[in-house]
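WARN no homologs supplied; continuing
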Amino acid sequence: MNPQTFDEYWLGYLAGHSKPSTRFIHYLGLFFAPIAGVAASFLVTWWAFLVIIPVFYLAALFTHPLLEHNSNKPFAEPALVERHCAASHARARFDGRSWPPAQPSEGRRQIGMETAVVAACSAVLMLGAGFHVYWAFGGRIGAGVSLPQREDGGPAVKETAVGALAVGLVLALVLLLLLGFAGLIRLPLPHWLLKTALILWAAVFTLRALSWSRYFGLFKRVRNTRFARYDSLLYSPSCLLLGLGLFLLALADTA
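OK structure emitted
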């Protein structure tokens, strides 16, 4: 099958990626792998990127035989598309709806965009939480550029295991709130509270990224330290991505 339109392409994609867990793993690999690879190349060794990317690609690839029980070439199998269309038509008739639905492309694009944003934000939060917990338990990789530094290279903030662990747990909590808001996990909280929390954390991350503080933020005044370089290239852009991504998800929500 050679799709000619977006709708045909999307039906083929959904036929081969029918489970939300499959699509989430693909999006997570798409965004988490490059972020983790770049961070590891900066903090560990330059060739870490070349190892991490294939590992995450294989993880996404194996979702087809393990979760979907198909190949990773759904567009070459018209029977998959036909089965997906038939199942969607049957569900629509059962629910009293028409198939295909009116203006399908916009809804699919929006769902795909929101899933991609959730995956990207989840990747950043997991990476940040993981490194902070690692530092809290004595890990030294990247610890030298984990805290703001004065002009002479000395630490501007005292390093403590409790502080690192607290930041890691907070980032993990934000990740849980995000996954709960997206419906990927169930939390004992009302949807409006999750949305409010998401907006508040979006503001926090955006302010962190655009801070005019002396030592951190895109508009910081001290720029000649190792931490400042990492902050400009990695930390502040990641916070800005989180802030804008969480705001976008909250604004797109109609529940």
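The chain has a mean pLDDT of 78.
OK
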